[in-house]
Write a structure and sequence with these properties.
- This protein has 254 residues and is α/β, with parallel strands linked by helices.
- Helix 5 packs across helix 6.
Length: 254
């Protein structure tokens, strides 16, 4: 009965709006111009475009924010403890840190789907874009950022399969915009987990053999994700099951 009532309500609303196209148009004409609207409240200290109001983004651009990051992750198998969105959780942490370190930088919504053949994405939870779709998404995001005023656009990918498409789009748009004061680049150096493993061993004194357990995750990846939300690595469940370690290294907070 409840489902039927909700369906009836939805249909009634749809018919109501369809019957009054003139009224909808009039409402659009009466909308205030947000480009000239004075922001009525203090801006939030946040670097994620999707978590800012239009006025906050507008004012950031006017006040000198000229750099935008396009971050790409993925949805895939990541062992028995990490969520399928591992790369996206890493980017939530790294994107915030990088943007704040650079200054005058905002971050576009993370591209959460990686490229590949959708026909072979048989691992439960795995989702793929075709390479053509993936590059089209990156291209449209970059163009959208450019036309609203960002003049430095950088692409960073957290998964190995993302790199080729980002490099191709960055090269294409860099050539297209050669006569404009706009820089776009794929920062391939971001995907450097070999260097991270070396830093972990030589600077932090944590010597890990990532092949020990034969699983698709590492100590450093898990550590980064825990700065977003420990639930993404199932910390409490692992503690309860005496599984709170990776390749022989404990992940329990000190």
């Amino acid at each position: 009965m409840r489902t039927s009532s909700l369906t009836t309500f939805a249909l009634a609303v749809t018919v109501s709006f369809a019957a009054r196209p003139g009224e909808a148009a009039a409402q659009g004409e009466n909308m205030q111009d947000m480009m000239e609207f004075e922001r009525p409240i203090a801006a939030l200290d946040n670097i994620w475009i999707e978590e800012l109001t239009m006025l906050e983004v507008r004012d950031a651009l006017r006040e000198g924010t000229n750099t935008a990051l396009i971050l790409t992750g993925g949805i895939e198998e990541n062992g028995p403890y990490l969520t399928t969105g591992k790369h996206n959780h890493v980017l939530r942490v790294m994107g915030d840190a990088i943007a704040r370190r650079l200054g005058n930088t905002l971050v576009a919504p993370i591209v959460t789907i990686e490229p590949g053949n959708p026909e072979t994405a048989s691992s439960p939870g795995g989702i793929r874009f075709s390479q053509e779709t993936y590059q089209a998404v990156l291209r449209d995001m970059a163009v959208s950022l450019k036309v609203q005023g960002f003049t430095r656009i950088f692409m960073l990918g957290d998964s190995g399969g993302n790199q080729r498409g980002m490099a191709a789009v960055a090269t294409e748009l860099s050539e297209r915009w050669a006569d404009e004061d706009v820089v776009i680049a794929h920062i391939r150096e971001y995907y450097n987990y070999g260097d991270v493993l070396t830093y972990q061993r030589e600077e932090l004194g944590i010597d890990e053999d990532p092949r020990l357990e034969g699983l698709h995750y590492d100590y450093y990846i898990t550590s980064i994700i825990m700065n977003d939300d420990p639930q993404h690595v199932r910390l409490q469940q692992r503690i309860a099951a005496d599984k709170a370690s990776i390749n022989g290294i404990s992940i329990q907070p000190a």
